[in-house]
Each structure stands twice: as C-alpha cells, then as structure tokens.
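Re: that chain you flagged

S.,

Sorry for the slow reply, it's been a week of failed gels. I finally had a moment to sit down with the sequence you sent. For the record, here it is as I used it:
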Amino acid sequence: MKIFNHGNLAVDIQRKTQPATKTVQKKKVILRYGISGKEKLAYFIAIMIIVSISLMVLARYSEVSKYNYQLVGIQQQMKQTQEENNQLKLQIDALSNPERIKTVANEMGLAQHEGSVKVYK
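Prediction finished late last night. Pasting the structure tokens below so you have them in one place:
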C-alpha cells in the first residue's frame, strides 16, 4: 500500500506482516456412540409401515374367515330347505294319489261320472 492512501501522515503506517509460521488447524473427530436422529426416524417409519401392512393383512384374514362362516351357515340352510322341499313333495305325491282322492270323495258323498274325469300329470 502506498502511504498517501491513508490521508493522514500522522498515522503510523501499519504494514501487513505475514506470519513466519503457518498454523495448521486440526480437525476434531467426534465419535458418537448410538444411532443418529435420521437413522432413528428411518427405522421408526420402516417399523410403522411394517406394522400397518401386517394389520391390513390380519384384517383381510378376519374378513375372509367371517365370510367363510357365513357361507357355511347358508349352505346348512340350503340343505335344510332342500330336505323340507323333498318332504313336501312326498306329501304332495301322497295326497294327490287318485285312489286316496276317490276314497275321500266317496266318504263325502260325491259320485264319479265316467266321462268327465281326466287325470293330468
């Protein structure tokens, strides 16, 4: 720097002196034991995802088992209804027997006209 740049001659000129020795800054290595905050957050999110997926799977299994129980109940009702229908068909066949109808008609005092009776099956 030039002297006249300071503007005042009474000011003592300060020259920049370069240090004779260079100071070397050492990096401090800090060892931390344990898990960092980001890792904890990542593990927590992963665990929450796994738990939610497993809960969804369990909910689906419970729905499937509920529907299976309903299906078994409906199948039992169908079998019971089919048995009742078969019994009712047997009753219809027994009650629609032409000879039984003739005996009931004779007991009631009805007479048969030979030309007017037609039997359809």
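What I noticed first: Residues 34-108 form one domain.

Talk soon,
D.
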